[in-house]
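Q: Hi! New to this. If I give you a protein sequence and the SMILES for zinc ion, can you show me the bound structure?
A: Yes, paste them in.
Q: Okay, here:
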Amino acid sequence: MDAQEITNLPAPQSNICDRLVWHYSKDGLFSVRSAYNMAVELEGRSSAVGQSGLGEVPRGGWNFLWKSKVPGKVKVFAWRLCKKALPTCSNLQRRHCGVRNECPRCSMEEETEKHTMIDCDFARHTWALSNLAWHKIGNWGDSAETWLRSLHRNLEAWEYRFAIMVAWKIWNSRNL
Ligand SMILES: [Zn+2]
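A: Thanks. Here is the predicted structure of the protein with zinc ion bound:
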């Protein structure tokens, strides 16, 4: 059946040789940007029809992160935070790379993303010193991604940038 459809295709009129093209960019050339945009679009489609896909991507994808005006390394930190890819003790233990999962700062709780960023005393004191409104900062939701999205939604643009920088500093100072 496929063979018949192929033989029914009109023969090309020009002498230009066939070549491989990347269907998802205008010039036919592959770029990481076009592949990323395609992946975001596919994720959006699969979540729209109720499949889990790679996880639900709300409108705008990850622009709240990649388009924020903070240094690239800070964006990467925030991305890793969202993807549970930071070497917190909890993540290390989950991957069988660590014996203990409690917070190295306070030893009071498991060192999850939430604990590191807002529950640990160190984090709370840091946020208090930042003067950002705690009722906007302390609303974690169900994941780091939800948290960052809510910061993006609820803070002024400069406050949001500042908050990501503070979060990065909280993590970075832990690793000194
Ligand atoms: Zn702690």
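A: Residues 63-176 form one domain. Let me know if you'd like me to explain how to read the tokens.
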